Amino acid sequence: MLGFMLRVPGTANWRGWLTGAAALMMADLLTGSGWIQAGILNSANLISIWAAYLILSRVSDHVLGLHHPISILYLLLAAAGGGAAAGLVGMLANPYLFDGSMLSGFTFWWITEVVNYVAILPIFLTAPIKREDSAGCHWQFRKQDILPALAVLLSCLAMLTIGGPGAVAFPVLALLWCALVYSVFPTAILTLLCSLLALLTLSDSGFHHNVSGIDDAALFSIRLGAAVVAIAPVMLSIVTNHRNELMAQLRYVSMHDALTGAGNRAAFCQEAERILAQNQFPHGVLMIDLDHFKQVNDRFGHATGDQVLCEVARRIQNCLRPTDQLGRMGGEEFAVVLNDCQVQVCKEIAERIRLAVATQPVTLSDSRQISVTTSVGVSFVDKGQSKSLEFLLAEADGALYQSKESGRNCTRLADTLDNTQVNEAKPAKQNA
Prior knowledge:
This protein has 432 residues and is of the alpha+beta class.
């Protein structure tokens, strides 16, 4: 109930609370409890849920979804708070319902709810939800991903075969392996299954009945051990996945231009050299430069110039194929490597880029419009030929210089190719 209210906030209203309370009561009544007993037990449940909800409903969605290491602190705090709230009711109800002491009532109910929250709540908080505006959750399965789950299965078989109080620790190493490989959701499911199996194994072994006088202490220890076993893999999975997210962000930042999102110079050159080194296909290289860009900065300011650069980069990217590489070489200059591309196709893509920029003004955030144009230089290396990236960039840059000399807003081929201008257009005036 708590997980549902947190994941679907619209249900956390008086209707949701009444529906949840009715469902809890019906479950107890159908399983043999009387009205008074069911009322007392479920009042503890509802108070526990309320206490935990007060804590978790105030955290951000990122923390609530267990995407940050601090999430585990909030999870433990909510488990402890919800368990303590249930323990207060148990302290009063235990003498009446079970002829036990108030202290044992508080202790038993508190640790029971802590185990429940720690073992079950992470599953609901991390369960993937397919929304209407998203494509859902897709996990690419690899053959090696089955090994951690197989290790959990083998450890559980060993736990069932050997038994004893130490059996609760058998799956720990396998679960920690799962935490390093899987996301939090499957790790939480496997952890819950192992915790339940461990509790059943210890219960069947009769361990806590073998030592007279310490039944409550043994039961407390067993449940607390189950909570520790449940939280450790989940905690490691949260930290591991958070680290992986940070590494992915760092990798993206190190390879992309912060302003335009295009590849930065170093990453572009590295990928381009890898493509050219294959020598299996013909490739084209484009050099693209915005015409009179300094005038845009001088007249409208550098913030406007940044908006223009971002929009031009987006239009260039839209003209490319998935296998092509775009990079920002510096300032207003971009470069493109066209993978597996004949000369004629290179010219067509270059001209498509030029027209995509020139035919539609750039609309700024304040609704002003600025017309910009580009000049493009094209170089080419055929299949089997050996030309370095530096040489191809120099050829394309020379062709770009010729397009500038020819009046801008046009595409030129390198001298080693057909030097015919492609669809040259007159320079467009800069206007706002």
